[in-house]
From TrEMBL:
It comes from the Bacteria. This is Lon N-terminal domain-containing protein. It comes from Jannaschia pohangensis. Gene3D superfamilies: LON domain-like (2.30.130.40). Residues 11-204 form the Lon N-terminal domain. PANTHER family: ATP-DEPENDENT PROTEASE LA (LON) DOMAIN PROTEIN (PTHR46732).
């Protein structure tokens, strides 16, 4: 378990559109670009072994920032190297963060000064959604998966803890990057579940992502 004082003020960040990491969740990644291979090497040498997953902005803002302000840091918990010098890694989500400054330096990858304030809940126990109606949610999910041509192990979903279920779907469903960012920034598990429901219902009605974010 991490405490707020354990988290560093600067971390390496990995900008990847559509890739969402949430606290207490796991994200597998395939690393092959030379700059990010070096990022993994440097991370393995660090004490905290944290990498920040963050969405690139669709457009650079007036202040020059190219990244979304809020991301989620994961601890590098699994690494395997292929014969052609690629990494298969797993990040275990620790806490969301807010970027205060993007840092460029000698490293070929981006680093950022970050603050962890406001995300204390991420370091605690799994969240509970008291209003979660599992049968109704799974019925909607079944219709959404059929519409999207997706499949899953329904038996495991029926027994999964609500945070694991909702966060896993937030990460795995084919939502747009802007929608994934909204799921990341949801202040509570209940809000994230409501957002997932809205996105699935909207997709079933044939709505487009452009309409959703207007």
């Amino acid at each position: 378990m991490y405490r707020p004082n354990d988290l560093p003020p600067k971390i390496a960040v990995f900008p990847l559109p559509g890739a969402l990491l949430l606290p207490r969740s796991r994200l597998p990644l395939h690393i092959f670009e030379p700059r990010y291979l070096q990022m993994i090497d440097d991370c393995l040498k660090s004490e905290h072994r944290l990498i920040g997953m963050v969405q690139p902005r669709a457009q650079t803002t007036g202040d020059g920032r190219q990244l979304q302000t809020i991301g989620c840091a994961g601890r590098l918990t699994q690494v395997s190297e292929t014969e052609d010098r690629r990494y298969m890694i797993t990040l275990s989500g620790i806490s969301r963060f807010r970027i205060t400054r993007e840092v460029t330096g000698f490293q070929p990858y981006v680093q950022a000064d970050v603050t962890w304030d406001g995300f204390d809940r991420d370091l605690g126990r799994p969240e509970v959604d008291d209003r979660f109606d599992r049968p109704k949610f799974l019925d909607l999910l079944n219709r959404y998966f059929e519409d999207q041509g997706l499949s899953t192990d329904w038996d495991s979903l029926k027994d999964a803890e609500e945070e694991l279920l909702i966060n896993s779907l937030s990460m795995l469903c084919p939502f747009e990057p802007e929608e994934k960012q909204a799921l990341l920034e949801a202040p509570s598990l209940a809000t994230r579940r409501e957002t997932v429901v809205t996105l699935m219902e909207f997709a079933l009605r044939g709505g487009t992502s452009d309409e959703m974010i207007q």
